[in-house]
Amino acid sequence: MRVLILGGYGAFGTRLATLLVQEAGFDLIIAGRDLVRAQALSRAIGGEAVVIDRRGDVAGGLAALKPDIVVDASGPFQGYGSDPYRVIRACFAAGADYLDLADGADFVAGVTALDAEAKAAGRVAVSGLSTLPALSFAAARSLAADMDVLESLEIGIAPSPRAPLGLSVVAATASYAGAPVRRLHNGQEVDSVGLVEGRRWILAPPGGLPLRRRLFLLAEAPDLRLAPLAWPGLKSVWTGAGPAPQGPLRLLRLLAWLRRHRLAPSLAPFAGVFHRVINGLSWGEDRGGMVVEARGLRGGRPVTRSWMLTAEGADGPFIPAMAAAAVIRRMAAGRRPAAGARPATGELELEDFQPFFAARRIDTGVWEEPPCDAPLFQRVLGDAFHRLPAQVQALHAGQGDEVWAGDAVVERGGGPLASLACALIGLPVATDKTSARVEILRREGRETWRRTFGSRGFFSQLSLGRGRDARLIVERFGPLTFAMALVVGEDRLNFVVRGWSFLGLPLPSVLAPSGASFEAAPNGRFTFDVEIALPLVGRIVRYRGDLSRTAPAA
Q1: Contact indicator for 430, 422 with CB cutoff of 8 Å
Q2: By CB count within 10 A, which of 41, 62, 111, 407 is most buried?
Q3: CA-CA distances (angstroms) from residue 201 to 142, 211, 312, 460, 468?
Q4: Is the per-residue pLDDT at 509 higher than 90?
Q5: 3-class secondary structure, 238
Q6: d(Cα 391, Cα 374) in Å, to the nearest integer?
Q7: Cα–Cα distance between 382 and 477 in angstroms, integer?
Q8: Residue 446: alpha-carbon gap to chain centroid
Q9: Could you tell me what percent of the chain has a pLDDT over 70?
Q10: Contact (CB, 8 A) for 182 and 224
Q11: What is the C-alpha separation between 323 and 360, in angstroms, rounded?
Q12: What is the per-residue pLDDT for 552?
């Protein structure tokens, strides 16, 4: 199967080519205006390099190369001029099927105008095989499967700060910054302002390590046009982007606001400058993510669910290319989509993406708010709570007061700073083996833990995180407060510090305590291993041991 990728050496085209070249049975053609860049990629991953300018003689180029499938990964699709579908018609003439990674709302929605031509030619033309709308619609269908009616849909994409953005993406974004973006709001078509209207999310698949809280700004996407057609009961739809670092995003928001009030010109001519600046600012955690939040009615009752995704390092930027790769893989296996021209809103389901997710460091899950009377740890973990070992679940599943007892080993760090920190909190002294006792007192959704090692004890209070600490558990030791992620993995519950404060004042995250802290049940008995270390100081204390339930607390 001959697959030609227009813009094959661009940000999205490169990743699609990488996904396809890893599988047998594809004759890959990397095409674009710059032969040198096409040849560089072909030398790196394989495939043939050719020059095709989508604004030039595309029909002649396709006729000579005779591809089976053409994928347009170039863009920006918002600026394809007065004849935006000339490439698609050239594909029909050459006997090739057409796919694209378009994100322009008008372009993707308007491709249905070619449906009759596609069917007459016996060809496939599917537009929008990217994160939006192909993956977002697959997630939304899954979330709304048992809803009587889907009323609201909100979608956010948070790329990693280390993921390079292509010029076409930046140019598309600059084109609608400060301009009207048509969307459905409270049952009415309204004009919102691109890159001005915002949302805030903490992306956290249940049991996974959350992304830090991000601001998302309204972005033009095909979902704004297509979602109301797919779900007639929909009252509101919103799509946004939340890149990091967030400082440049806030500056872009200000410029968009100035343009909205005619105090600044269109940002489109400055796309090249923005592209260089954005790709030059790459600090922050090398992680990205996505959220699809659906609200609706089930049995007359309101229900809210969120499908969340987090991706580590360089794996996240492959997500926009996965939908096209999945369809091409299907076609290679003989499962060719029906002839016709249409948006990619119904081509794939979530399970079609799972093989690609599983091959990379990508975590997904569905969050549905547990009942407010659920145990504290279950409210933080959601469905992931049930993936914990039974003994770990048992310690955290109680509704009343309990006492757990066992044995422990305590190790202390050296140096005066470690001793001072232990003294301030009342941490136990070093010992090879001592008795351990933990009283858990539960009151109004909070838990007070009184830990006693030998004759020395200390206590802390645990509660559900709010605001910037949402999806986290917050533990307070006197004036110090620690916000921790509960991460389920390797048959254990890991505690990862994500923030800390003194008397309510946030402290620098680079100075936050660290250490491998977890709960497990390796031999059918609850065990704990808690390590507290500080940068430049090293270990403060480590205590580990096992516990079993004894009786309700007095």
Answers
A1: no
A2: 111
A3: 20, 9, 18, 28, 9
A4: no
A5: strand
A6: 18
A7: 25
A8: 30
A9: 99
A10: yes
A11: 15
A12: 63
